[in-house]
Amino acid sequence: MTRHLPFARLHNFRDLGGYRTLDGRTVRWGRLYRSDALSKLNPAPDDDAGRADRERYTGLGIRTVIDLRYPWEIAAAGRAPEIPGQTWVNLSVEHRPYDQAVIAADVDPWRHLADRYLEVAHDGAGELRQALGLIASAEGPLVFHCASGKDRTGLLAALVLVLLGVHEDDVAADFALTERATDRLLADWKAAHEGREPSWPGFGRAPEAIMRLFLADLSAQFGSVQGYVTEHLGMDEGLTTRLRRTLLE
Questions:
Q1: Domain ranges in the chain?
Q2: How many Cβ atoms from other residues are within 10 Å of residue 222's Cβ?
Q3: Are the CB atoms for 186 and 204 separated by under 8 Å?
Q4: Cα 59 to the chain's mean position, in Å?
Q5: Coil, helix or strand at residue 90
Q6: Which end of the chain is more exposed for a tag (fewer CB within 10 A), N or C?
Q7: H-helix or E-strand containing 87?
Q8: What is the Cα–Cα distance from 157 to 155, expressed in whole angstroms?
Q9: How many C-alpha atoms does 209 have within 13 Å on its Cβ side?
């Protein structure tokens, strides 16, 4: 099976299947995907590559799209294409906007981003609760995404994988796979911000260290990811049971 699904316009579309859990089960392939912005699948009339992308995406049979972006991002860039039988939900998990392109040079970037993730975990409790519930109850393939498929998407992917019982090393490694797409994502950013250059040289990076710091922070505050979900999101272990029933084999 293929983890990285190749598209011309999408650069970070991945299948979360195949990971082994601590109890010996495996995450199902073809059921849960993570991506950069699916608005890139809305091609211009003469965009043959865009049309091919859309056909490939449609062929995955995705039933639910969770868009983690701000409403203003969607207004500016568009939403996922409207496909019959597919439900689109906007759950904007981030509540404190920040600009990664201008992180100060004297700031530890990985600690800085892990701190922003922790803010999302606290501020976005309502949206994350809804997202986890949708994933646990999904009756068909589901994809969630933000703009680059790195930060907000990486946070939700990590929560799901840990709750499924995937080892933290694999969770951190999955997060870091975005680094394969960094150059193309940076090119997209420059195209959308004509005349600007990120002043932070680490812009677009996704090293394992960020995710390890974030997961350690959650454990320090709540004992574990399950403790965070129970205490802060208000969801009991029935959520974890439903996630495992839906996504493990």
A1: 14-247
A2: 17
A3: yes
A4: 21
A5: strand
A6: N
A7: strand 87-90
A8: 5
A9: 8
Q: Is 20 helix (H, G, I), strand (E, B) or coil?
A: strand
Q: What are phi and psi of 154, to 5 degrees?
A: -65, -35
DSSP 232: T
Element (DSSP H or E) covering residue 226: helix 225-231
Beta strands in 137-232 (DSSP E): 142-145
State whether CATH 3.30.70.890 applies to domain 14-247.
no
Q: How many CB atoms lie within 10 A of CB 205?
A: 19
The span from the CA of 231 to the CA of 249, in Å, is 28
Per-residue pLDDT tens listing for the chain (249 residues): 899 999 999 999 999 999 999 999 999 999 999 999 999 998 776 788 888 999 999 999 999 999 999 999 999 999 999 999 999 999 999 999 988 888 887 889 899 999 999 999 999 999 999 999 999 999 999 999 999 999 999 999 999 999 999 999 999 999 999 999 999 988 888 888 887 888 877 888 999 999 999 999 999 999 999 999 999 999 998 999 999 999 999
- Can you give the pTM of this predicted structure? 0.96
Q: How many residues does the chain have?
A: 249
Cβ(41)–Cβ(81) under 8 Å?
yes
CA-based torsion, 114, 118, 121, 123: positive or negative: negative
Backbone angles phi and psi of 87, in degrees to 5: -100, 135
Phi/psi class of residue 78: alpha, beta or left (left: φ > 0; alpha: ψ in -120 to 50)? Answer: left
